[in-house]
Design brief:
The chain is an alpha+beta fold and 98 residues long. The chain has 3 helices and 4 strands; from the N terminus they run E-H-E-E-H-H-E. Strand 2 and strand 3 form a beta hairpin.
Length: 98
């Protein structure tokens, strides 16, 4: 099952984001087997202001625990985070033959 993690940074938090970024990348590097797609959200000046990830997991609870252990969440970069199940059926990331 796939899930979308959509997280927005707290306002005016770019400096904190950059401080925590190495830990964030290390964390997701250790969990890269679950990632289908990941990258920053960009503001009107092309500066990071959040993150979007599409991950695979067995349940919402499993993915929520994974997302809430992200240093961007635990170290106060993200202000909000929404996690929603999805069903990829079209496009390059969609399972073939479904």
């Amino acid at each position: 099952m796939q899930f979308v993690i959509y997280a927005k940074d707290k306002p005016n938090n770019l400096e904190r984001r950059m401080e925590v970024r190495p830990s964030h990348l290390e964390y997701w590097g250790k969990n890269s087997d679950k990632i289908l797609l990941a990258g920053p959200l960009l503001d009107e000046n092309d500066k990071p202001c959040g993150s979007t990830l599409i991950v695979e997991g067995n349940s919402l609870e499993e993915v929520r625990a994974l997302a809430e252990a992200d240093p961007y969440w635990t170290d106060g970069v993200f202000g909000t985070m929404d996690i929603t199940a999805t069903n990829l059926f079209l496009g390059k990331l969609a399972p073939q033959g479904d």
